[in-house]
Amino acid sequence: MRISDAGFSRMMINSMSHSYNDYAKLNQQNITGKRINQISEDPVASIQMTQLDNSKSSVNQYKTNVGRLKGKLKIQEDRLTSIDNQLLSLRDKLIESKNHNNSGTPLAILGREIGMLIEGITDDLNAKDVDGKYLFSGTRNSTKPVEYDTASQTYSYNGNNDSIDTVVGNGITMQGNVDLSAAFSTGSNNLEILTELRQLANKMVDSTIAPASYNQDISTMIGAAQTVTSNMGSTVTELGARQNRLGHLEDINEDLEIVNSQLEDDLIGIDVVAVKMELENSLLSIKTSFSTYAKISQLSLFNYI
């Protein structure tokens, strides 16, 4: 069958166009490292990749949440440890005050030292996280939780007991805060123990008040300080348990990330060496086709005479 010049040209152009499309596809695969760069190339795998991308996004968010929560819980643990240490020192000062006749230290000095420890505890209760939010205000974390009224010599709690939950895994949430107000209260977050400690310290500093009038208060506050210390210890243990669980979830999320990466490689991954070789062969094929077409297109009847 005889092929006309026009037909031959169309055939060569179509062939070169097809070769160029193959080259462009291979070149895109080489650049992106992905077998599929358009949905039309493999619709089924593209849908699976969309689902996989959603899974990867969720895992990344879980990892971010876990990291932030671990940091927040660590800050709270450090503050609780600080409060616990100050409570132990405060209790020692109260015991020394109970035996002040033997210690030789004036009650006024002990009272001031107890007052300074209370201020340190209050500072820890009003601590903030790295985002400037109060750690121990519940969900009212823009409100300073503990305030002292000089006139009435009382502390008040301005936060709430609500928990702040964070999503750390598929269907898994974890509380990111603790309620410390109850540890210093005998009623509904009235911080009565903290108030009574401050009032006792004020009495000790006031030389016009006879020690005998608040001697029983000292005994009561020794027991109260011990109770608060026990509460702090339980809360520190709870925070430690949460951090351990977060560490376990962190490992799970790392494993999920590896699995997702392997699935992605199975779906759209390429053999880099093989693609580069195909790319070189495709380019060579295009060059050869252009060269052949150029030579043939220059032929005429005179070439056969």
From TrEMBL:
Residues 10-139 form the Flagellin N-terminal domain. It comes from the Bacteria. One of its GO terms (molecular function) is structural molecule activity. GO terms for cellular component: bacterial-type flagellum; extracellular region. SUPFAM superfamilies: Phase 1 flagellin. Keywords: Bacterial flagellum, Cell projection, Cilium, Flagellum, Secreted. It is found in: Bacterial flagellum; Secreted. Transmembrane segments: none annotated. Its main location: other. Belongs to the bacterial flagellin family. This is Flagellar hook-associated protein FlgL. It comes from Yersinia enterocolitica. The gene is flgL_1.
